[in-house]
């Protein structure tokens, strides 16, 4: 027989939705048995954003629990997403894969001196059991400002792909790209770089039920949160030494049974994480109440903390960032993670008065207050009321139900349109979609690697006394 089958299974953007993991493992074990019976080769990949610090296991193990799960899946290779790359400190990322049984591939991430990270390679070449030589390249989304602040250099992924492809194409039968760049980037790569056979994509959470096929390249992407797993079937013609046919599918795992061994591993990891998160960071002599659609002591404290942390003239945060109030008594790391699980960092935005005024008007609308946000690092439900420190707003609620701003003072003085103000805020505001006025910022300064819960811990230590 001159043809043989190669099966690729790919996971992307799990975002630590670990409730899906036992289903993923049950499915992979079933497929392992099936392909072994048919003497077919079967390989697995993860395309990044497996570890999301919203989950207590990820937070409490610094992501190493996720790596144990990835080991369980017997991955061939993985690349990193922005959740691994820019929500962990440099030291944490440097040690995240210490116990990995798979090789991490990131062709466009370097140390400041230009060397590759000790835990990553730009590519791998595998000689499979069936004799096929498979090349695998990995790249991640280039969040330059974040990576530089953390001590990394992230390069243009297109240049890295081109250079690596030229280096290894002649050495392999099949070339696979693990791309945490998003679907539009993957389409561009498929149209411009004909030497890549398969692109396994991530980042934009698209579900491609039958993949995309263009210019002899197949793109697969399987949504988010482990609801689907991607499957690529490659039919290889041994006589002609070429791919004869490719079929891409997304398999819905919702009704799949769970794997008991995987469930037990998750339970052990949860115990380990909870032990680490039990550390007390503060002891409150009174509770911190919370309101999402009004002012409250907890949101006032967060606004003050961000202003102090960013050394800014004013600050602004949305109340929906805090998910629960804090009770009187000991506050642990686990408590702060539960009430503020977002992988969101503080930042300082330098903004002209005219744009700051526009931003405040927008921030006070009911539309923004009731907005249910998906992505941008936000892991809550609704934006909630915008809470300011150093800003006095006068206005009234009209018949249309909107609060109409009539007067704004900054630390007791009227806004000066041409003056640049420093605004302590959160990085999700800087992406422009929620508050378009931020687009006109003269400068944006990010504070990394600390997240909002770290700033809260710092503030509470002084607040409790």
Protein topology:
Blueprint: E1 3-11, H1 21-37, E2 41-46, H2 56-60, H3 64-72, E3 77-78, H4 82-87, H5 90-96, E4 103-105, E5 109-111, E6 120-121, E7 123-127, E8 133-140, H6 144-150, E9 152-154, H7 157-168, E10 174-180, H8 183-192, E11 198-201, E12 212-214, E13 217-220, E14 228-237, E15 242-252, H9 260-277, E16 280-284, H10 297-310, E17 314-318, E18 329-332, H11 333-339, E19 346-352, H12 353-363, H13 366-369, E20 386-389, E21 391-397, E22 403-410, E23 413-414, E24 420-426, E25 443-446, H14 452-463
Structural notes for this entry:
By secondary structure, this protein is an alpha/beta fold. The chain folds into two domains: 3-273, Purple Acid Phosphatase, chain A, domain 2 (4-Layer Sandwich), CATH 3.60.21.10; 279-463, 5'-nucleotidase,  domain 2. It is 30% helix and 29% strand. It has helices at residues 21-37, 56-60, 64-72, 82-87, 90-96, 144-150, 157-168, 183-192, 260-277, 297-310, 333-339, 353-363, 366-369, 452-463, and strands at residues 3-11, 41-46, 77-78, 103-105, 109-111, 120-121, 123-127, 133-140, 152-154, 174-180, 198-201, 212-214, 217-220, 228-237, 242-252, 280-284, 314-318, 329-332, 346-352, 386-389, 391-397, 403-410, 413-414, 420-426, 443-446.
